[in-house]
Specification:
The structure is a single chain. This protein is α/β, with parallel strands linked by helices. The protein contains nine helices and nine strands. A five-stranded parallel beta sheet has the order 2-1-6-5-7, with helices on both faces. Bound molecules: ligand 9WO.
Length: 244
Amino acid sequence: MNFHVLTLFPDMIRDGFQTSITGRAAEKGLLSLQTVNIRDFSVNKHNRVDDYPYGGGAGMVMQAEPVCRAYESVRSRIHGSARVLYMSPQGKVFDQRMAEELAREEDLIFLCGHYEGIDERVLEEIVTDEVSIGDYVLTGGELPALVIMDAVSRLLEGVLHNEESAQFDSFHDNLLEYPQYSRPEEWRGKKVPPILLSGHHANVEKWRREQSLLRTRERRPDLLERAVLTKEDKKFLAKQDGLC
Ligand code: 9WO
């Protein structure tokens, strides 16, 4: 996987990327990151890349031409086409399913805006996917791009130590994770659930599944509607209903 990021703050992207598992994966050659500073493609002698919005109003808008030239510089280094993801609160909301879909691409181009946005005309020309990471407004698209690169990276072969962990985590089957415990067995008077110390693998698995089901129903009932439940799962939840 090759990530390409068009941004006015390349240091922010590189720093965020290096300081984690994604950085290690890049060192191992499992993925690559290339940042392109949109300011390097300014068409103005003062290196400006923004201007006032037509129609008036607060703030500044990133101009079409520098963004387009930055994009073309990336395109010239890529074989064939690549999806261009514009990070914006107006986009489709990112989720695990989208991460899995993006992980199948060879190259991904992220476009990070700043100020009050980017001239719509260049967005119409180059953007294939407008993506939001949630319903809030930030100062720019850099953090959302890092979030998406992180979620995609951990799905790539060899990035995580444990090959199984990406497969069996939250949202894989639309259920939340079960609670985790580590040493000591008793911490400030609070004990680890005894079943986890029993060494009985099948019982542990059953307990974890039940915890996932209970948590999902309690905290994210919207997810439970999409989850694929076995007969045993449904029986367990119905029995719990009867208890309260
Ligand atoms: C600010 C603003 C102020 C007055 C009138 C219109 C305005 N639009 C914006 C605006 O949306 N600024 C964005 C800042 C432009 C694109 C980059 N920015 C951004 C991306 N903020 N939040 C995101 C984002 C991206 C993905 N998921 C969540 C938030």
